[in-house]
Structures are given as structure tokens and as C-alpha cells.
């Protein structure tokens, strides 16, 4: 079976994808510098998979470190999750974001080219579409200049990989544009463990639910949506992980550029999410309204039919599954991997 290097494999989406790769019979290798992950995730992955997964500690920006797994293994493909992802932080530290995400990806792609590894799957984001002109978003929807350095790094890496594919036509470049990943593995052993106070909705909800935070502030109540709050396409992280496996099966050794939206196709408002979460915990989750958050898009959800038609992949988890699993993870691990 194919050996797949997973950069950022100790992180939230990476760890879930490693589990699904093992389940599907692939041999993943994790590469991570733990800048936003904890070593405690590795024994948890082992517990779920029933075997350990090889691990390299290293930084994608450091060529000698990036080369090690290629020198020591025959790598058939790379799923590239490693990167910094906090939108607000990227506004304050743009150079760190370009260095880590864009420069890091340059080093990785150089090493891949030099070692003859031509299968590249990249974690892109629906953020590349900016404020949509119309929903649902298809892969042909226009790419807009991003409203944060983080978003711009995703656009830049997409373009860089596409240009490389033109120059080295053996490359198979797959760009997966994620909508809003939430939830956790049903075992409750791995999940999202953000540092500090979460910026994203779901980890904020789970931390209020376990009493680590007091009350959710809903950002804005006068958006032009049915209930006045913003709409997103929340997708269970295990569905996202199986989306990577489906993309790998379809795109491995198929030269070209392959682009897929990974979403459910259904939009939920912030109020829908609060209601679903309240149901999962059996009482109303403390919440209040606050001002709009700068940079928020009003309504964003995917048309996932290309992934369905070409990859045979659809998201199967419901909103109830997402809230139940997110809560289960947080309840079992109130302080994340520090427990
Ligand atoms: P995460 O922070 O949990 O995972 C990223 C991992 O990469 C971490 O384990 C971190 O330690 C590692 N890493 C960062 N810089 C590195 C470097 N220079 N060298 C080696 N390892 C490094 O984030 P995630 O939510 O799992 O996201 C994974 C990818 O998906 C990211 O590229 C992110 O931008 C993208 N993405 C995430 C979302 C989301 O909502 N979570 C949405 C769209 C796209
Ligand atoms: C955010 C990023 C986006 C990134 C995505 C990754 C911004 C402006 N956008 O998107 O670039 O790709 O994360 O998943 O940061 N909300 C509240 N209260 C909270 C937290 C969130 O009401 O405490 C609302 C937000 O206003 C939004 C919705 O919940 O309407 C979802 O927010 P979030 O989880 O941060 O995701 P995005 O805004 O889609």
C-alpha cells in the first residue's frame, strides 16, 4: 500500500486523517513541529489505530529536516496540513504567516520535486472565495483577494502548486477547499485543542458547555439572513478526513490539477448551532449578542457535487453527530491534551 507523508499530522484535521488513512490501508508518516499540537496526540492515534504511526519531528521550512522522511522512506504522496491558521494573529504577524505557510510549502514542494514524489494534496479553504457573489459555491466560483494574510497564503500556495504542475507535468496537485471543520473522533480520544481562548465557534461552544468559558457572544444579529446571524457549512472532521482518503484514491498518480470543495452543502446559522448544542447538552447554552466581527462573510456554503461525482465522496455526519462528538471530546478532555 502507498506510503503517505502527512505534514501537520499531529494537528486537528491531520490526526483524524491519519486515523482514516490507516483504516483505509495506507501507511501514513506524521511530520510535525508541534508548534500547534501536543505529543500526547501520538499515543491516542496509536490507541485508535491499534498500531503506532511513524513520526518525524521537524519544521517544513528547514530543508534538512524536510528531507529526512524522503531519504529514509519511499514516499508516494504528501498530504500537506502544516501551517499557521489563526486569522486574527495573521493580521498582526503577516511575515510569520507568509514565512511559515508559503515559504514552508516552497521547501516541501522543492524536496518533493527533487525526490521524484509528485502527488501533492493541499489543505486549502473556502476563505479563497472571499465574500461570495452567490451560494452555493462551486469550484469555479471566483477567487477573491483575501481579507487576511492567512487567507492570502492559501491563495498563494494554490497558485504556486498549480504553476509547479505546469512546469513539471508529472505532478498531481489536489487542492481541497474545506468549509468549516468541527466535531471530533467518536472515541473522544482526539479532537480540537486550540491554544488560549478559541476564535472559532465550535470550540468556543464546547468550552462554554464544560464551564471553561462563561458565555458565548454571537457576533452580530442584523445580517441579511433568516435569523440575522451568519451562515456556514459545518462539516464533521471525520467526513473531512474520509474526503482526503477519497481524493488520494482518485488523484494518486493522475497528473494534473484537481480542485474539490469539501463541505456538506447545507448552511447553518450561528443560532442553529447554539440550538443544536443546547440540545446535545440538555440545557440552554449561555449566550448573548455582541457586535459583528470584522471580516466575517455573511453566508457561505458549498456545492459539494463535484466531489460526489468524481470522488464518490459525500459527508454523512449530521449536525447532531457534530455537536455530540465535539461535546464528548471536550467532556472527556476538559483541558484538551493536557489532561
Ligand atoms: P492545526 O493547527 O491543528 O494543525 C496544523 C499542524 O501543523 C499543527 O500540528 C502544527 O504543529 C503543524 N505545523 C505548523 N507549522 C509547521 C511547520 N512549520 N512545520 C511542521 N509542522 C507545522 O490546524 P488544523 O485545523 O488541523 O488545520 C490543518 C490545515 O487545514 C491548515 O493548513 C489550515 O490552514 C487548513 N484549514 C483549516 C481549517 C479549520 O477550520 N481548521 C479550515 C480550512 C483550512
Ligand atoms: C474563520 C475565519 C476563516 C477561516 C475559518 C477556518 C475569520 C474572519 N474567518 O471562519 O478565514 O478559514 O475560520 O475554519 O476569522 N462566531 C460567533 N461567536 C464566536 C465565534 C464565532 O458568533 O465566539 C460566529 C462567527 O461570526 C461566524 C460563525 O460563528 O459567523 C463561524 O465562525 P468561525 O468558527 O470563526 O468560522 P468562520 O468565520 O467561517
UniProtKB/TrEMBL annotation:
User: Any idea which GO molecular function terms this record carries?
Assistant: UDP-glucose 4-epimerase activity
Q: Name one GO biological process term.
A: galactose metabolic process
Q: Which residues form the NAD(P)-binding domain?
A: 5-325
Q: Which InterPro entries match?
A: NAD(P)-bd_dom, NAD(P)-bd_dom_sf, UDP_G4E
Q: What class of enzyme is it?
A: isomerase
* UniProt cross-references to CDD domains, sorted A to Z: UDP_G4E_1_SDR_e (cd05247)
- GO CC terms, sorted: cytosol
Q: Which Pfam families match?
A: GDP_Man_Dehyd (PF16363)
Keyword NAD listed: yes
Cofactor(s) this protein cannot do without: NAD(+)
Its UniProt pathway annotation is: Carbohydrate metabolism; galactose metabolism
- Give the E.C. number(s): 5.1.3.2
Catalytic reactions on record: UDP-alpha-D-glucose = UDP-alpha-D-galactose
Which keywords are on file for this protein?
Answer: Carbohydrate metabolism, Isomerase, NAD
Self-association state and partner proteins as the record states? Homodimer.
Q: Which family does the UniProt entry place this protein in?
A: Belongs to the NAD(P)-dependent epimerase/dehydratase family.
Q: What is the protein's name according to its record?
A: UDP-glucose 4-epimerase
The species is Candidatus Anaerobiospirillum pullicola
Q: What is the lineage of its organism?
A: Bacteria, Pseudomonadati, Pseudomonadota, Gammaproteobacteria, Aeromonadales
Q: Which gene encodes it?
A: galE
